[in-house]
Design a protein that fits this description.
Layout (H helix, E strand, L loop, with lengths): L3 E6 L7 E7 L2 E7 L5 E6 L6 H16 L14 H15 L7
Antiparallel strand pairs: 1-2, 2-3, 3-4
Helix pairs in contact: 1-2
Length: about 100
């Protein structure tokens, strides 16, 4: 088995880049939005619902950070509501998977 395995899309546009890397007992999964924002999760191999979790994080970002009048694009996300929502999502993921809203 190779030390790592990478899945890269061969398209042009915002989807370019690494989608998944697996190696050393960890999976790194990435979602890049059409606007160029990247969300990355790390998990143990065999963890399910990573794609769903990434999409849910993007929804949370849209609902929390983008509606924060003090948030500016291209800046780190420092929104307490977003952080709490992601923490809650990760807890749900750890206890049985993501349930769509």
């Amino acid at each position: 088995m190779p030390l790592f395995k990478a899945l890269v899309r061969g398209q042009t546009g915002a989807d370019d880049g690494i989608e998944e890397i697996e190696g050393g007992g960890v999976i790194l999964k990435c979602l890049q939005t059409r606007t160029g924002i990247k969300f990355v999760l790390t998990a143990e191999p065999g963890t399910t619902d990573l794609d769903s979790a990434l999409r849910e994080i993007y929804v949370l970002y849209s609902e929390c950070a983008l509606k924060d009048p003090f948030y500016e694009l291209e800046m780190p996300i420092r929104c307490e509501l977003f952080t709490m929502a992601v923490d809650s999502l990760i807890e749900r993921l750890e206890t049985g998977g993501v349930k769509s809203r």
